[in-house]
Amino acid sequence: AQGNATRIFHKKELPLDINLWELIRLERLSAISYVLSGGYSGPQLYPIKLYEPVKFLEKILDKFPSLFATRMLVVLEKKFFQD
Q1: Residues 24, 75 contacting (CB under 8 angstroms)
Q2: Who contacts 22 (Cβ-Cβ below 8 Å, separation ≥6)?
Q3: What pLDDT score does 23 carry?
Q4: Which one, of 70, 74, 75, 5, lies nearest residue 31 by Cα?
Q5: How far apart are CA 15 and CA 60, in angstroms?
Q6: Which of 75, 64, 56, 53 is nearest to 29 (CA)?
Q7: Mean pLDDT by 10 residues, the chain (83 residues)
Q8: CA atoms of 61 and 59, how far apart (whole Å)
Q9: Can you tell me the distance from the alpha carbon of 45 to that of 34, in angstroms, rounded to the nearest whole number?
Q10: What pLDDT is stored for residue 22 in this prediction?
Q11: Which helix (H) or strand (E) holds 21?
Q12: Which pLDDT does position 82 carry in this prediction?
């Protein structure tokens, strides 16, 4: 869940051994088009002809991730230690 990603990677409440991983990328995304589409299983909340305006709105909202982020992209790379 999104809440766990926020706690672990944004608030630094790390329940895992982070020393085994290198954080490559952390990006908070508004993803409003996904939310309004109903996700994978819900009903679509806007007609397909509004997709482009919603994507444009999303670009604006992405400039304020602390207010509008609904998704988080986290890229980790496992560290390999040499003896």
Answers
A1: yes
A2: 76, 77, 78, 79
A3: 86
A4: 70
A5: 33
A6: 64
A7: 77 72 88 80 82 90 88 88 63
A8: 6
A9: 10
A10: 85
A11: strand 21-29
A12: 62
CB 21 within 8 A of CB 79: yes
For residue 30, which of 9, 55, 13 has the smallest C-alpha distance? Answer: 55
Reported in sequence order, the residue ranges of 31-81 that DSSP labels E, i.e. its strands, are 71-78
Q: And the tokens for 32?
A: 């409003």
Calpha distance 56→78 (Å, rounded) = 35
- Here the tokens at position 59 are 């670009």
| Contacts (Cβ under 8 Å, ≥6 apart) of 15 | 8
Q: Which one-letter DSSP state was computed for residue 18?
A: G
